[in-house]
Amino acid sequence: MLAVVMIGLGGLAWLFLAGLLLHAVLPAENWQALCEALDGRAGLLVLLWLMTLLPLSLGLKAWLDRHLTDTERLLEQARALASSGHPIDEAQWSGSTQRALARLFNRLLEQRDASERDLNERVTTLSQRSEREKARLIALMADLDRSVVVCNLDGRILLYNPRARLQFRRLSTAPGVAGGAELIGLGRSIHGLIERPLIEHALDKLKRRLARGANHPSSQFVTALAKGRLYRGLVSPVCDLDEQGKRDPSRLSGFVLQLENISAQVEAQHARQQALEKFLAQTRDSLHKAQRLLSEATAPGNAEARNGKPAKQLLERIEALDQQATLLQQQSTASSWPLEDIRAEDWLAAARDRLGEAVAGPLHLKLPEQSIWLHMDSYAMTEALSGLVQHLAEHAPLTTLEIQLKPHNGQALLDLSLDWPADRPLPELGDWLDQGPGQADPTQLGTIRQLLHRHTAECWLDRTAAERIAVRLLLPIVQGQDELPAAAQGERPEFFDFELFRRREANTDLLDRALDQLDFTVFDLETTGLNPAAGDEIIQIGAIRVVNGRVLAQECFDQLIDPGRDIPALSIQIHGITPDQVRGQPRIDEVLPAFHRYCQDSVLVAHNAAFDMRCIRLKESALGLSFDQPVLDTLLLASLAQPNQASHSLDALAERFGLHIEDRHSGLGDARATAELLVRLIPLLAEQGIVTLGQAQAASARSQFARIQY
């Protein structure tokens, strides 16, 4: 538009100068004749001016579109692709100048990639040792059987192991929806689960002990967490290194927190204490009665003493006392011996070959459809049963062995079915019960009888057919552990970010913080339609976190939702979610509160966020929620970073930035693509002076797409 105005003014100036020139060179009578000829025909001059202006304007606009606008679009695409390493397609540009610039960009990109490859090879060579040490640390952390969380001094989580993730999942109020992701994650605060004063008290004790010169101090506490479970926490310091690379106790930078669920231990200890108190009370009562009976038995002239009645009653009291003492000993032994939770099928899969060593023929294993968890010393129990099978093989040849596990009256019943001659009686188990499991010394690890006591288990022999017997082992069932799914092939779980050691909570307002220092929750909704105010419902929420400029693929939120209504066929064609898929899924009143906890302490991000936030806002009042976090829209941010592009749809942006969208039009798939897009947009926005959250929000409000409402 400015160019057209300039051309128009130039045309007027040309006419004015032409008039002055004619007035200067023409004789007075000729100038007078010209003025008389043009008198009343000023419109002709204006028409002549417009006829001159129009082709010049169109020509200039075409030239600008071809050379300047295309060049600006080429520049925007070059900036977008520079970080991804994808070359520009020269064929899509018609102008020779743009094609030449595209070739130059691709050539420079190749040179940069070659330089980066050379640099990366050198860096890789120099950092291989560091990577090996880091991989060793990750492997050790993954194999620990205790929850380990490393935090900076603000309580922000910068490392956690899979056991901690599993532990936090059990503490989640919505484990089936959020899976504990609302409690644990890189950059999240540990104070969302454990009270800040408790951690600060432990850190204060550590600082005092470090100041006194303690080498490796630690501090313990016991606290009740979600669902009334008791946990023991062990806090150890993380100190920075000095200039010589040595640990400096005066520079505390964070702490290691180990969490252990001690609820079962406390309950067992309480049960032992109650049993002991009961035993002591019964002992005192029995002693008092024994004293009375002895007094009566020795009293002169007692007729009952002659027929032995007091002695018989005394013997009964002593036997009852002995039974109570035996029971108390069994409870004490069972609770103090180290046992582990294990899937019964895992135990038997590992034990089947050992059990079949004494069997000449085939071995068959039959397991229940649903997993059964046992609390046991799996190795000792395997050795004990193997010894029993070998003990039976000494009395009769064993040709087949059938192993079957099944639930039985709230316990697990293991049957080892063996061949046995019909005319041969069942052998006694006494000798076997008094042996140690396997080759173990009974004086060190106890006998098999004690092993059964430790497991609160029973073992006996039954004849099940004319020529078949069964070794039957009855074991108590325990509540199974939740197990995390294995990572996809080639996928590396993101359970640590040591850069967070350097990040402390800023005292500045959130709007003044830089975009690359914020935590983001990038989300996407799938719905039954595009009119939430008219009754369209959310049927899927997918979200992923971005911390320290990294997309945390493992810390995602992905949940289908039963909308309580039909899903139109047109919507199914877009997102592919059918009524059968959402039937039986949680309703929105369960899912949205879990998502609210998941995205706490973060900035919400979505593509075309106006629609997604409208769907959420309509549910806030009924559920008593308030999503009051700042919101950014990648549609608006992209229009700021690339104002000359024709389209800012997610597909168009993914193509320009070289992103692959997996599971397009699914909640998590679109959220992951939007997160990758956000990471690439932040440096482009910084080039335009949009650095902080406040600047991004103010600039977004000026975008032409900010007027879109739902």
TrEMBL record:
GO terms for molecular function: 3'-5' exonuclease activity; DNA binding; DNA-directed DNA polymerase activity. InterPro entries: DnaQ, Ribonucl_H, RNaseH-like_sf, RNaseH_sf. Its EC number is 2.7.7.7. Residues 519-687 form the Exonuclease domain. It holds the Pfam family RNase_T. One of its GO terms (cellular component) is cytosol. It comes from the Bacteria. Keywords: Exonuclease, Hydrolase, Nuclease. It catalyses: DNA(n) + a 2'-deoxyribonucleoside 5'-triphosphate = DNA(n+1) + diphosphate. One of its GO terms (biological process) is DNA replication proofreading. PANTHER family: DNA POLYMERASE III SUBUNIT EPSILON. DNA polymerase III contains a core (composed of alpha, epsilon and theta chains) that associates with a tau subunit. This core dimerizes to form the POLIII' complex. PolIII' associates with the gamma complex (composed of gamma, delta, delta', psi and chi chains) and with the beta chain to form the complete DNA polymerase III complex. DNA polymerase III is a complex, multichain enzyme responsible for most of the replicative synthesis in bacteria. The epsilon subunit contain the editing function and is a proofreading 3'-5' exonuclease. This is DNA-directed DNA polymerase. It comes from Wenzhouxiangella marina.
